[in-house]
Amino acid sequence: MSVKYAVLGLLAQRRGYGYDLVQRFEEQVGPAWQLNAGAIYVALDKLEQEGLVRPVTSGQNGAPITRRRTARGAPRVIYEATPEGLERFEDWMTTRSAMSPLREELHLKLALSRPHNLPRLIELTYEQEEACLERLEQYLGGSSFDDLLASAQPWSAVASVMVRDAEIAHLQATVEWLRRIREAMRWLEERPEALRSRA
Amino acid sequence: MSVKYAVLGLLAQRRGYGYDLVQRFEEQVGPAWQLNAGAIYVALDKLEQEGLVRPVTSGQNGAPITRRRTARGAPRVIYEATPEGLERFEDWMTTRSAMSPLREELHLKLALSRPHNLPRLIELTYEQEEACLERLEQYLGGSSFDDLLASAQPWSAVASVMVRDAEIAHLQATVEWLRRIREAMRWLEERPEALRSRA
């Protein structure tokens, strides 16, 4: 649902076609979202049905303006936001945002595990930590938003870096958590008597 | 998809029926997942189709054992994990877990916003911070897993507290991030000249 409004926001910035919007979404929102490209096309369809976006027409015969053809020869339709679309986007921007759920598969494994799974769980914490550190490395050397503010960048650049900063903070907190629980699990592995058996 | 294996894990612990599994999921995994109860019933159907769980039968006539009737009078079927189900659950426990996406609506708003949205974005950071602090307060006074280890609790209790600790860490990191970006946004609000206009 939120992706719909993001597409509207991208079209409020300037016209675009499907794949172009996928690229702009990834560039502006960042990799943490793990965008499924199909969601952009679903959003475009919905937005068009609701009259919030429309294909850009040449004006002469009302045929949509298209850009390069896709590999299969289908024309790429260029879309623009309608006035209603722009208004709806601004409305969305002012609504309160609910917090998203935190749904990590590792949390389920941990919650449903039994003591005999401890050795494997410890390995999983290493694997997850490695994944976090790899992602963090990709962000290394990137500008902080404080840097950007000092060098008069456009707001869009500052905002994108703020979003990346949220992922960095999440990854760092996750790494610290993984190390904390790993230490406790190792301690337990050596002292199984510290656990009470279930009745 | 992961919920399916969680349901299998709950049934590996002991038999159960739909609503009972919803409650046990929420108790063991915690509120951060924001479980949609329907997902448990979908998972049960899939698991039964795959032969990983089955209704518990009375043995006499092969009729499923049921427990209390629902408000609409439909019998509540009790399920148990099959031997294949137990094996599949252990397989899942050992697979590597991919990191989940980080999909906060506030991130989209930030990434797609324009400078004129700054005042509202600042308000949104307050609202989100308040939501985080409210959730953190619910966890206040709860045991840490170090406490639990010191008092010989069952592993399941320790593991649940570890999962809650992941949410606490995430919420704390989010609060710090919100404060950081709010400070930068306020600075910008007072110095619009610090932003370069888009070409």
In summary, what is this structure?
The structure is a homodimer of 199-residue chains. The first copy, chain A, has 199 residues and is mostly helical.
What is the N-to-C order of secondary-structure elements of chain A (H for helix, E for strand)?
Answer: HHHEEEEHHHHH
Task: Give the oligomeric state.
Answer: homodimer
Residue runs with pLDDT of under 50 for 5 or more positions of chain A: none
Query: Looking across the biggest beta sheet of chain A, what order are the strands in?
Result: 1-4
Tell me the major beta sheet of chain A.
2 strands, antiparallel
Distance between the termini of chain A: 45 Å
State Rg of chain A.
Answer: 23 Å
Estimated share of beta-strand residues of chain A? 5-15%
In words, what does this structure look like?
Two copies of one chain form a homodimer. The first copy, chain A, has 199 residues and is mainly alpha-helical. Helices cover 61% and strands 7% of the residues of chain A. The first copy, chain A, has eight helices and four strands, in the order αααββββααααα. Chain A has a two-stranded antiparallel ribbon. In chain A, strands 2-3 form a two-stranded antiparallel sheet. In chain A, a hairpin with a 5-residue loop joins strand 2 and strand 3. In chain A, helix 2 crosses helix 3. The longest helix of chain A has 36 residues. Chain A is elongated and about 80 Å long.
SSE layout and pairing:
The structure is a homodimer of 199-residue chains.
Chain A: H1 2-13, H2 18-29, H3 37-49, E1 53-55, E2 66-69, E3 75-77, E4 79-81, H4 83-94, H5 105-112, H6 118-139, H7 145-150, H8 155-190
Antiparallel strand pairs in A: 1-4, 2-3
